[in-house]
Amino acid sequence: MVLKVFFPSCCSTAESGILIGRWISEQNSAVVLAVIHFPFIPVQVKQYLSEVQQVTKVSISVLGSWNNSKQEKEESLGEFLEDLGTIFSHEPWIQISKEGASKFWSCSTLQKHSNNPKEEEIILVYYDQRKVMLSHLHPPLDTAASTAHRADNASELSAVFDTVARSKVLFMTDRYDDGPIKLTHWQSDGVEASIIVELMKQASVPACMLLTFLLSLISGVCRSRVLKFWPLSFLWSKLSTCEQLRHRLQHLQVISSNKKAQNQTQLMRKANIFVSLLIDVALGMLLMSWLYRKNRIGHLADTLIPVADHVAEELQDLLQWLMGAPAGLKMNRALDQVLGRFFLYHIHLWISYIHLMSPFIEMILWYVGLSACLGLTVALCILSDIIALLTFHIYCFYVYGARLYCLKIYGLSSLWRLFRGKKWNVLRQRVDSCSYDLDQLFIGTLLFTILLFLLPTTALYYLVFTLLRLLVVIVQGLIHLLVDLIDSLPLYSIILRLCRSYRLAAGVKFRVLEQQDGKPLRLLMEINPLSYGSVVHTYRLPTYSCYPKDSWTSLCKKLFLGELIYPWKHKGEKQD
After folding, report:
1. Of the candidates 230, 278, 302, 304, which has an alpha carbon nearest to the alpha carbon of residue 375?
2. What does the pLDDT look like over 331-346, one tens digit per residue?
């Protein structure tokens, strides 16, 4: 049977005393937490351990004795430490002794109450107590064949990590305290603290109360009945800026909540949201300072109208090309002229609308630029909405062409079933056999011929405007991908992984320090940090958008049948 003793490296220079920690009988291992020095009174030690056990809910007891022969030269000290086992009565009683300047330690166990004491092989594992206490051990993410073995090792390690983490109260006593018990642990030279952190904690309470009050007012206004009427509710559901503001409002409510985080995951989520908001607002302020410097807003407004006119002229040239003989194709002259003039009239209306709004564009951009102080994501969402408004005529062209093309495709498919003596059963959602008379077949043949010869003209217009629409969709999709990246990226976890990698532990590795016959095997336990991919996968924040679930096959089918496509699909939103 192998006995594993986890010994804190900070106690290797401690004076002689007794070892306190937790005995894990299921794993036959002992986790040493601290060393109590001489002199002490056993009754006071037992009372102190019972108080700590009530607070930490960890079964802490006296595990054995620690003898630093470099500090103590008395010959009777070893016998005295061995006799302490009868007072504290722990089975087995662990005796660890440091042999002067030698690099080898002796470690043995005593089992006074056992009839058949067995010699156990002892492995002495050193660990960094501070890193183990501050780290959070993550379970393995893979599901390989060795999952059960990995789970057993993870449970053994988690017991060690959990024991050290829950014994935080034990480490709040340093050598400057006037208590009757003197301990050696990672904070025995002084409790780690920061004046700046303490001041921020004190200032965060009134700040959170004020922020909670303001957020409750904003939430009350957003839930008012005035905003639930049709025009405003439609805008709130379609504009990505409103969705982003609602998403950030939820983040602020999570941060300002007085409810304490129940576990490490909730704490990391709050920290990631706070850092994400902070960096988002900082980037927005930088963008706003760049926009208002050197009158860039005015230059942008002066450039916007000529760009819109140029786009309109290119669309007019494209329509004139389609109304002729595009690529040498023979089109239906009458339908071609009707569709071309219809779309040209829409472009004329769009140009008139742009020139009517031209005196107010600079003022609108000036106020829109101020929204960057709410964050870079809000500015990007406003940019996406502006692109949607400026390309509204392209969207109208695409919808007209798609509906007309879809009507002809479904008409041709229905008439094709008529030729085969079939029809679509609406109630049972299937194709059934059907008998048609001569008049029905004659009219069906005429309609099928008309739709078939008009289809190339409609398909060409649909193809051109679908490509233009896909270009706008790609631009808006890239903007939304950037917004989702800023919203969902766990920046705090990534920074923590970069600066203090031991805080996010994926496991441990053991390095052999010394090995000699007759001496315990000494290992050094080092923390393996999580990979950056695992950090992003574990702590990724949820976003208000979700990617379209359509595959490439489904998307191509929609394009072929003339069904409408959208750049983004929000949760709970139904696509047409």
Report:
1. 278
2. 888 888 888 898 888 8
